[in-house]
Every structure is written in structure tokens, then in C-alpha cells.
Amino acid sequence: MRLSTSMIFDQQVRGISDAQSSWLKVGTQLSTGRRVSNPSDDPIAASRSIVLSQSQAKSSQYATARSFANQSLSLEENSLSSVTSSITKAQEIIVAASTGTLSDDDRASYATQLQGIRDEILNQANSKDGSGRYIFAGYKTDVAPFSDTAGGVTYVGGTEAITQKVDESRTMSVSDTGSSVFMAITSNAKPEPDGTPSEKSLFAMLDGAIAALKIPQENADAATTQSFTDAMNKTNRGLSNSLNNVLTVRSAIGTQMAELDTLDGQGDDRDLILSSQMSDLVDVDYTAAISSYTMQQTALQASYKTFTDMSQMSLFQLNS
């Protein structure tokens, strides 16, 4: 087979072009730090990197969800901490107000103090988060969960607690409904001595004590005095039950927050593993790349030299 001048020329140009392309490709890898920038660079690695990228995105979404969940639980815990202090203060007032040597003015003063505590607790029960959503309203976050009317405080919020998926296989409640906090007692609550149902509403307990403290006891008959004593005792039991319920809710919140910390740690470990796997697939090995870059550069220079030498041959001269 005879070799024409144009064929030799094309081969030399193609050799230079291939060498230059290989050299530039390695140079791009060094400048970007990535071995696989396009699927054609390594189809298998590119395919696996897509799967890993999706896993990383999902892990990031769960991390964000855990952050929101932790914020919601922290806000609830902060409110319930204040509620706990208020209930404890109310218990102290009930004990002090039950003393038989007090005057009606003294009892009225205690009633005023209890009214203030009641209003503080109601304010916490209707508290909002930073976005203006009611914390204890369940999914009805745009409506105040507790309504205070002449008939007393009633719960008008949602019936279901807000839940959040915080990991691949874990969904948890990130807030409690007001009814489960302020309108409920635990299964081991102190029963009423006469067998009547125990009061569950924290506000009804306080309202009953406030009303009893406003009734004059000086020179009162035995029935009125006994009624007052019974009201104070019932409120004292009720506040104890309510406090126990609030503390139970707070304990559950603490457990959930601890679990979120654990999931965050596991998520960080998982992210490191995924990042390492992704790096192994698509990131450049600088040692190998630098070596390859040098070799490709040498090959390119050799191609230039060969082309130059070949162009001095008589066949090229005759062609010109």
C-alpha cells in the first residue's frame, strides 16, 4: 500500500490532536479536582455517583428536618418550664391560703395571685413560635388553641400532634397538643376520695380555687367552711396531678431531643462515609494525575517534534 503525502500529514495531525486532547483532559482534572466530570469519563463511576448524590441530598434533608424538630421541641420545653414553675407557685399559694387563721382580705389577695398565675399559664398555652404559629395547637397552628370565656377555658386546637420524619425510618412528634398538656392527667393520678372523676383541666382547677377564695369565711357556718376546705384540697390534688402530667411530657421531650442528637451523630458519620465514597468515584488522584500530565505533555512534545521532522522530508517539500 502506497502512502500519500496527505495521508502521512493527516496521521501526524491526528496524533498531535489526540496527544493534545489527552494532555488537556488531565490538565482539566488537575484544575477541577475531579476525575469524572462527564458520564463519558467513566460511565460506571458516573452512574454510581448519581446514586450517592441522591443519598447525600436525602441525608441533608433529614438533617434539616432534625434541626426544625429540635427547635420546635426546645420551644415547647421552654414554655413548659415556665408552666412548671407557675404550677409549683400555685401549689404554694393553695397551701398558704388554706390556713384557717387568714382573713377574708388575705384570701382575696391569694385569689388575685392565683388569677395572675392562671393568666400566665394561659399565655404560655397560647404561645407562638418565631413564625407566628401556635405551639400547642396541633395542626391548627393558625388558631389560638385555648379560648377563655365566661364559662371557662376550653381547648379549640387540633386533635393531632405535629409529626416530623427525622430519619429514613424514624418519625416523631415535634409538639404536643394543648389538650394533652393542660387538659389531661397521667394514669397514676391521685384519685378523688369520694370516687368522683378527677379534674383534668388545669384551668378549671385554678378557677375553682379562685372562686372558693373569694367566698367570705369569717363567721361562716360549718357547711361553708367545709366546702372551702374541700375545694382547696381538691385543687391541691389536681395541681399535683397536673404537675405530674407536665413533667411527664417534659421527660418525653427530653428523650426525643436526646434521640435527635444521636440521629445527628449517625447522620454526620453517614455523610462522611458517603463523601468518602463519592471522592473515591469522581475525585482525581493528584499523584497519578500529575504523573499522567507529565507523560502526556512529553507525548505531545514528541508529536510536535515528529511532525516537524517529517515536514522536512522531501515528500513534504515536493508536495509544497
UniProtKB/TrEMBL annotation:
What the entry lists under InterPro entries is as follows: Flagell_FlgL, Flagellin, Flagellin_N
* Annotated ranges, domain Flagellin N-terminal: 4-141
Q: State the UniProt keywords alphabetically.
A: Bacterial flagellum, Cell projection, Cilium, Flagellum, Secreted
Location of this chain's protein in the cell: Bacterial flagellum; Secreted
Q: Name one GO biological process term.
A: bacterial-type flagellum-dependent cell motility
Report any Pfam family annotated for this entry. Answer: Flagellin_N
Q: Which Gene3D superfamilies match?
A: f41 fragment of flagellin, N-terminal domain (1.20.1330.10)
GO MF term set: structural molecule activity
GO CC field: bacterial-type flagellum hook; extracellular region
Q: PANTHER family under this entry? A: FLAGELLAR HOOK-ASSOCIATED PROTEIN 3, FLAGELLIN
Protein family according to the UniProt entry: Belongs to the bacterial flagellin family.
Q: What is this protein called?
A: Flagellar hook-associated protein FlgL
